[in-house]
What does this fold into?
Amino acid sequence: MKKIFALLLIILVASFVSIGCSINSKNKTIVIGSKPFNEQYIVANMMAILLKENGFNVEIKQGLGGSLINFEALKKDQIDAYLEYTGTAYNVILKLPPLKSWNPDYVYEKSKEEMLSKYSILTIAKLGFRDDYAIAIKKDFAQKHDINNLSELSKYAPSMTLGTDPEFATRQDGLPRIKEIYGYSFGNVKQMEPTLMYEAVKNNQVNAISSYTTDSRVDMFGLKVLEDDKSALPPYDAIIIVNKKFAEQYPEAIKVLQKLNNVINTDEMRKLNYKFDVEKESADSIAKEFLIKKGLIKK
It folds into this structure.
């Protein structure tokens, strides 16, 4: 009889512990980090809204800092998740050797594998958009000369002036890489602050600029982003990364965040950024509207 009572007591205690763990997982405040720019704010809010809709408490540390600051915070359990990019993970965080040809799948898999083995950081979702460095030209010029990629620009580049930020102009995986892979240089290169590049191309002070594929100003200034058809530049696929310990303790939260896997393409992200940058909508309202549109939350 005593044995039966003891067994029942163990089962009862185990049940309470299980219930307690479940309750605690919902009571924990999940902290989402973000870098200080448009799409980071928007996606951080998407993550937060999804988690809240599923009963979790959430805090966003908005504009926490650059990649290394967020990554260090993640390693130290100061934040639980944030939006990173494969190219940044590969080049900046892991400092892996540059590739002769930047294969996006390889960069993704290698970054994922190395972050896990070296730092116990898990990649749990790949959102579907890429925020790559790119060359952009005016749409009317592109249409007139039927230019869609960097190879097709070769005929015109020697007589063009490129506006670019100082970093892209000099870093080995930037403009020098285009020269190496595509075999041409621009006739003139003007280094300037990124915000000035768009005004410069608008006023015909330059003919092309270094841009980002998700930059809302591409649409605002009537530009066309040219395809990097020879994969000269690193890919920057958007990924959600978390601490392995957090993932093991809160698997339900991971399942929720994985709903963002492959849900946003590059054009969509650029349009969402436009709403934030130009139409001055809040990151929270943009995120909520998008999640409703995709059927991930109810109105």
